[in-house]
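User: I'm preparing a small set of examples for a lab meeting where we compare how different chains pack in three dimensions. I only have the primary sequence for this one, and I'd like the structure in token form so I can line it up with the others. Please keep the answer compact; I'll paste it straight into my notes.
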Amino acid sequence: MDERWRWAVGVGGVAVVSVAAVGWIGHCRDRDSAHPGRADTIAVPSRRAARATGKDDPGLVAEQLSRNTLFLGESGQRGLQASFVVVVGLGGVGSHAAHMLARSGIGRLRLVDFDNVSLSSLNRHAVATRDDVGKPKVTVCAERFADFAPFVEVEAVVSMLTLETASAILEGSPHYIVDCIDDVNTKADLLDAATAAGIPVLSVLGAGAKADPTRVLIADMADALKDPLAHKLRRELRLRADGQVHGARVGDGRSRNLQRNTIKVIYSSEIPCAELAQLDSDQRADPNAFGAVAQMRLRTLPVLGPMPAIFGMMSAQFVICELANRPFEPKRVEVISDTFRRKLRIKLLQREKAEFGNVPDRGGTPVADEGEIAHVVEDVWFCRSAFNESRKAFKGLALTRWDRAKPALPYNLVLLEVAEADAHDKETQATGALAAGLADSQRLQFIHGRMVDLERRHHAMPVHSYTQ
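Assistant: Understood. Below is the structure token output for the 468-residue chain.
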């Protein structure tokens, strides 16, 4: 094609696009002028104006948070805007958590971190840019949040949390703490202080060396079995319960009142799929010269940016729903395998035949299918023995009837260790229904209350299905 024609076609193409754009803009203006109440016709002042006056138009704030309000309701959103949350650790996880808390209109945020933005952290930080390298992470977050949520009170605290600084960092009666610390001792210090102060805390565990986003869960700390950070943290908390802090003996047993099962955590059930980077010769010769703090982060853990972002987003979602009085029941344990489902059902069918004389295929009462068994194991008993709440290897667990007189359907199945199931069957055989010691055991009464609730919900379902 002649060069002049190429130029003409190019100009014509631009002209067509330009005319189309102008036409669309004109259409939008005509449409909006016909609907003066439309939200997108509101004149939004710059964030600089809001900062200068220290105020923000309530109507603008209400519109900016309108999708939240539709979900949470007026009272829920008001509760959120009246709440005070402390986020400790503003790296890949904490920056995303704080970011979404600010966008959701949390009333007050205190951001705590001693560290600065590094170039290598830009693969996972929520808001930092190259221009921010070398600046304190909390300051960078506070400045960015003011761009889109000047109505949120943000306090940037450049400090490391320690046993000595914890009380000052947590002062002011915060409603929730989000723990995004990646050091075991510092993490334990925060959990110790939060528990002593009676402040709810959500502790985020290891996002590094993980690849599968479908394995991220919210649970009690004791459920996080495949997380190396959780293992080290549980050990540290046990030592503190025995009166040891940072390896030193203390007189009051600071963490004696800290029940690790009451601490909510976000963790991945995936086994770590990458290893810590090895120190080079210079780092080995003088390791403290390379860490942010002496004996901290000397070896680098590989991390892909999306994983800490997912952990942070999940923590923000959980805290938002808690503070807005719209809590949800998270999935606490990993999905059991098809093989284990099948084996559990085979064992249940064998127990039904041997103990209850029931063979469903020969005119007997129905028995839960594999999908229903998965629901019972994962969502009712959380892969734990109902009696002692311990997590044994799956091969050591069995399902049996809670009430001998009722069928082996989801509302009447209890997960126990094999020996416990055998003993329970003997007790119910003597009564023909429930265990004789029910009235004398607080734990058995708790289990019975859960079974009654499960049966009520089972019969209230218009179409019975645990697998939809």
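A couple of notes for your slides: Confidence is low (pLDDT under 50) at residues 1-42, 247-260, 463-468. The two ends are 60 Å apart (CA to CA).

User: Perfect, thanks.
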